[in-house]
## 1
Amino acid sequence: MAQFFLRSKREEGEAPLYTKIRRNGMQMYVCTGIKVDIKEWNKAQKSLSAMQRYEQTEAGAKVHELQMQVMKAVDALYADGKIQTKEDKVIIEEAMSNIVTGGTKEVQRVKRIAEAKSRKYVIQFYEYFFSGISDGSISHGKNSEYSPGTIQVWKTFGRYLHEYCDPGITFDDIDKPFADMFTQFLQKKGFMSNTINKNVTCFRKLCNLAAMEGYNKNAVSLKVWKDRTVKETDKRAEIYLTEEEIDAMYDMELTGENEIVRDIFVLGYFSCQRYSDYSKLREENFMTYDKGLGQITLTQKKTGRTVNVPIVDDRVYELCDKYNYQFPEISEQKMNLKIKAVTAQLAESVPSFQEKYVTVLTAVERRSEQTYAKLLKKKGSGIKFTENERKWFGKLSKLAERRNGSPLFERNKHGEVIRPKYELIASHTSRRSGATNLYKLGALSNMEMRSITGHQSEKVFENYIRVGLSEQAQMVGDKILAAKNAKKKKVDK
């Protein structure tokens, strides 16, 4: 029997139609090559009459005819003994292609077999995989589609993969020297350890995915990828805002987009969620306990975990009422730019926003600084700029002016890059600030905190919050004193 279904979890648009074939104890999934309207297809699955109505449409009639032809073709292939193992899936794919294209030409057969064989090449397998996660035909976990953020990570990895890897490289060619050279390749680009690890992880996953699909039989390729140790000195400064700073931000007199950005940021603070979640909050995410306490309930986009956040500050409702629970959509890129502008304005009246923090430059910033130094040297030597150099020098000179000279980025006496607090604030700062301040209250256990933030492990959570050793000691001391006072009161009674 052949069953037809969609892998995509989208509710609108088009998606490729798949068929599940069961014969002789084997189960195979094959893409038909036909795309159907998701809404119409899902509507047709609700009942027999709905399917009959669907089959009366032009699109439905096409799908019905395909079903008949596929079942007939599959039956014939099994009857002729051409399908013996799962590796014979390519024969079914060939037959499917012939049905869809309406031909049985030799070129179609050769093409399908060539495509299957090509996946042993690293580049070709990546392109097959990336195409699948982009159109939703390849999912992960419990048939859930890859998030836009994850797809972007794979897209970026693909750019470096094409630059590093020759098209003729197969998974059989991957060994420890190959993996080490990839890491060195990323290091030469000036990437920080976190970025290097992210791309190494993608390569490791690619090898594992290819192995799972039978295109990588090199066990060594699964073991040679090692993450770099991320030192504190390799990390950008991870700051958080105090309750007083959040209060000052909330009280600012703002208009236009700056006001909207501030309001969404503050909502993110009280929700302790990522921008992809707190920027999308709607009325259905707000609920009320039997005892009258409100809560925010949502399924995190990144992790798929459902979290419940108690609402303990009335300003949450003030913000929601202000926008009638329909917060304007603003891209995260614009959010990051605008929130820096807001906090730069706030820094004029709140000195703590001007405090300098040691941080590191991004790879782009390092290259900009190196380029500016070379151009300054060239100018000092009286050598004429090319047109492109002239444009870059003009752009970087303006940045240097804002930074009060060269180098482009301010440094302390130890040569470390330093920046004022307001320049380090981004959309994610709201989540880290909310989680850190809630943790510092000392009223919730780590498990209770994680039920709000959605962190899966104790270690990740403890690394996430910005609480130093002295603050930890103070919190422990406060709990001990509270326990002693409670005991003393009990004795006195």
## 2
Amino acid sequence: MPKLEELIASGDISAAIAELMNGRITPAPDAAENAAQYDPKKHDINDPQKRPDKIVITDKDSSEYGEVKNLNVNAELTTEQGFRIEKVARIALAIQKLIVKRAVAFTFGHPVGYNATPESDEEKALLAAINRVFHDVKERTINRKVARSLYSTTEVAEYWYPVETDKPHNLYGFPKSIKFRVALFSPAYGDKLYPYFDDAHDLIAFSRQFTKKGADMITRTYFETFTKDAHYLWKSEGLDGSEKRNWELVENYPKLLTVGKIPVIYASQPEVEWADVQNLIDRLEKLLSNFADTNDYHASPKIFVQGKILGFARKGEAGGIIEGEEGAKAQYLSWQDAPESVKLEIDTLLRMIYTITQTPDISFDTVKGIGAVSGVALQLLFMDAHLKVQDKTEIFADYLQRRVNLLKAYFGVANLSWADAADSLLVEPEITPYIIEDEQGKINTLQNANGGKAVISHKTSIRRLGWADDVDAELEEIRADEDRENTYTEGEPTL
């Protein structure tokens, strides 16, 4: 492609934007479809066109006769008949959200570890500064938001940038008047993301399109582009900024970048997390809705009458008698066929949904009969989820590594004395899949391996328990209690 600078210099901004939109190596996600599947209110089961209400025929003289809307075109209407709309059951399940929530929890339920062995003082100070940035931006929360966006929309990006502070500070280990911040870009927030890759699949530009209503109440479309050298921002009035004449450069742009890297980190996956089971979820919702309709019709017993009934028992009357003419018959209509096949299909669908998406079924009904389980049993219970996290590590290992590398580059520019440390310091992110810790089982295993001896100190045990604010003071109290128990006073015997 022609260089972005050349396209901009030519004045053909529309051509530049069109080129930036065509640099993907994967298809753009269907944001509207993904959002509709993710939101139970927008499921097909709630669409009157895909699941129409029932039309019930009534006598024209009946009190139920009235205007009918959205009639079934296949219904045969006569002048002697009236119609009413019978609402059907619509049961939508938030299974897509459940799949995403479980996947996020198992991926980033534990904090990300950053393995590093700094050697020089500069490397140690740089590592401390990076950790301080992660603390300030709540990196653990950012990770969960990134995973949630990736799993539910197939792509996400984060933009790291410095902001000026009111006064200098020493939070990063050196005097500076900036702090580092991060912003997330996602289709879930209304963003359209346009990564631009070269033939080697290296990201050489990143763009996003979004709309915003200004103080003048005019809605404008913005197109924002980042390269390693500059930050561009164009705008056009209205929701559609595709026309060539509409685009104009926003004031004070482009902004030069000195970090030497694109300040945006991007990640994508081919499909949303529930893509392989979407049809199963649709089928499950249809089955449950039909089952609910059947219960509505047949849950309460109905009386079938043959002949003329002269008198009927009153509501709540004890020993009431139904009186009829000779030959009259009355009997209850009951639902004889047990819905075993429906229950079997529902159970099968749920099991297949969990299995295919590698989502552990950890509902109360499932685990209530397990009781106390060992660490091995927990590992087996969560094995599928952990295998899934290993697959996701292919995405997040590179993603988190690029995040660290970008911050190293920022600090190398902000503090020139760290320039060499920024190149030499090696930091490797490590993702630990979430699991419930079997503390007692772990302690027993370590003690057995240690010949039954203690494996940690008394002080460490107090600190790990977390019940005491002052570990040293608590340890002294314990020792004082032990001393009192081990002392005695010799005196005269008493009866």
## 3
Amino acid sequence: MNQLSQLEPQNVFRFFEEISQIPRPSYHEKQISDYLVTFAKERNLEVYQDSHYNVIIIKEASEGYESAAPLILQGHMDMVCEQDSTSSINMEQEGLELAVDGDEIYAKGTTLGADDGIAVAYALALLDSSTLQHPRLEFVCTVAEEVGMDGARALDISPLQGRQLLNLDSEDEGIALAGCAGGGTALLTLPLNRASLTDKEKYLVPVEIGITGLLGGHSGSEIDKGRANADYELAEVLQTLKSQMEYRLLDFSGGNKDNAIPREAMASIYVQPEDKERLQEMISKINQRKQQKYALTDPEYKIVVTIGKENEKVVPEGINMLSENSTTTVVDFIVALPNGVQEMSLEVEGLVQTSLNLGKVRIHSEEAKLSLVYSLLSSKGVSFEKLSAQVNQIATQFQAAVKYDGIYPAWEYVVHSPLRDRMCLLYEQKYHKKMTIEVIHAGLECGLLAGKLKELDAVSIGPDMKDIHTTQERLSISSTKRVYDFLVQFIEKSTN
């Protein structure tokens, strides 16, 4: 604690550091939710907590602002929990180890959770202020945003009077988001077969093949960067090997979240002793090609191979490798499915319209099945349906089951937005430059909330962040201050 105590604005960073000590992965939000309730009660603020642990905190208008339109401040309390090999933190039970590097805050070995912890910190600082002049403020803090926006979907909006919503879940200062993609999660399940080993196969050589060194990133906002997906890359490597030699697949594991581009993936296979040298040669060539391909986007791309000793002992009893047919099917199925950017927008230059991300791969030994978890995004309903149909068709060909979950609507751009107009005017007056208006290829809760709150006028802003959903996540200190100062000024001018 107290790593951020000297940073300005002190009230924002104090709250940010406090919530960073509270574990808050998706579906484990009770502790942070209770913290928010306690915060409200200690300040005699109106507070609501539902059975999902969503929280609404209300602060009535300051004197002179009673007739001003209420303003909803909105963010989410959960975070994507990723960590690298240097971190031993249990992210379901322990807080983060924060550090400062120049103008940036990061967490040692883990994601920082500024997405969307900074929204929570902003809101608490505003609600805690005794000097802020403001209309009725309604802070909506949701759960499970990172795993399908379950909290926003379940939210009871009856305590809310506001029809102006300021979402604080963006990562680029000076950009006002005015629309976003809709999406959902697809779970594909493929039954597999195990097969007993022949006498010859009992002397197969164990090999581990891993993809490492990738940058990963957010499956929406970073999908257009051309970064490698470790899960898909590993499947391609295994498919190439399959064209030149026989092997048996034992395990395939990669990624942890549907909405994070996987940085690492690992497969365990068994090969014939005579293929050991050829495998090394092939991997070396593939690695060279891949490093050339991703030299700009993933400069640390690496295929790592560990080859066991042959004829030292037979394959241990209990090792239940996939049959030859299932080995081939797993690899071909993953490669056959689409991944990455599928369509670009015709209306907005440079905007991804439709994409999907293979976020998680697992072979379940006990149940003998393969599971794939995808995040699908599209700003067009018809394109989402087209992509879903394509996934369904390929799954059917491989006799796999498909289940969709957490589907949420797009937040469609509206031409007339008084809230956005006032914000852009203040920004130009304050900084002598125009605020950029964008629509993004990522999910925000504004779409779901707009469906609940009719005629909702919404804008999303936030400070500069980079590499969210990765262990390289950083939050700009100076940008955090500028955005907070802007928020204070904007709120105090909200008299109409």
## 4
Amino acid sequence: MNYRIITAQEAASYINNGDGVGISGFTLSGTPKTVLPEVAKRAEEAHAAGKPFKINLYTGASTGDSIDGVLTRAKALNFRAPFISNSTVRDAINNKEIIYADLHLSLMAQDLRYGYLGKVDVAILEAIDITPDGKVYLTTAGGIGQTVANLADRIIIERNTYHHTIGMHDVYEPKDPPYRTEIPIYKASDRIGKPYVQVDPKKVVGIVEVCMPNEQVVFKELDPVTRKIGENVAEFILSDVRCGTIPATGLPIQSGIGNVANAVLKALENCSELPPLDLYSEVLQDSVIELMEAGRVNTGSTCSLSLSQECLQHVYDNLDFFRDRLILRPSEISNHPEVIRRLGLIAMNTAIAVDLYGCVNSSHIGGTRLMNGIGGSGDFARNAYVSIFMCPSTQKGGAITSIVPMVTHADHTEHDVRVVATEWGVADLRGKGPDERAKLLIEKCAHPDYRNLLWDYLKISKNGHVSHNVAAALALNTVYEREGDMRKIEWSKYL
């Protein structure tokens, strides 16, 4: 089949007010670059004429300013799921200008197929190429491309010649109940699907020609705190290997995104006692590429190459080395509980706050304001061989403690959190009751400025299986809002 070559503006004309739009990509990688900014312009023109224009946007995970930011400023978003990181869309969600559903990333494609999230009218896929019979070779991420292509009435292809990932993808979509069977991944390196997304050529309304890199991934340099967290986690993993809790052959690693995750991987690079690792994760960062070349990582299975432009170019310049070592999967597979549990992952994710009994807040500031969302942390935490949550012990120059009596928003309960790490140490909560958990978290993870305050909270708490003073449990947050420093708490007011 011969496809029409169209402009981004013409492609945007196929997207109408009220449409559900599903896109390829995961984080800043593999998302379409040119069509959605033109949709934003259509929305602005419609609004200027007094007409409504908003879409529902379905993605694999977060996007960048060229999608979330541009559409938000144009007031073109009605609904958004499942994860965000852009500050513009974050503010709009917190101001209740956009409906946002915070979903486990493993459920996004499935929930679309089940019909929970509404209709997908248009799919926009960033691809290296498309064949006449509808084989679409995606770029740097798996995401939900196959699912939205199946569900959509109309498909737009952004053919981006900047990228060179043909052969890295392993596209597999499970059947829905009652016909679902096992997902046959038994090692991180297993390939079970196709290297392309199959679409119905008749649905393709046109191809937009593009040659653009992904939006740049920017991380801060590692600081002493994040380095120390990384060292603490690496030493904990090594100690589990030494005592036989983790097999000497090692287990696959899942690592979230950000500086703390990079610090852990950097620390693992120097652990010569550990065998070379496999990664089975939702994102891979620059540090993984370095570990591969150093012989410390064998396979990198992921949903997204969340790499800097320089690092991604390095991969493209050395495809003979990396093509077989990197596997790009749909997010439904990279984050699937069945596979996570079967492989026995060591899961490492970041927390905003952890309470005295191991409940974790990973999504909301002060219990009300969305930060990014739960992402894939829940997929991994509940199903991993061991789930580790990491965070600095304090924020805002010490004015906020990350170890609190009770979290203001619970994304992960104490049932799913096995290990907590800060720059001060590691609290191994496995097999521990509530009192033991509280003791470990205060002694091993809390900042020294807050340890006595947390002990004092327990002294005024009502005994039971879990000790709490309900009136005082969230008082640290109240004190911070009023006085700007949690250390000014006076527990005597709650006796």
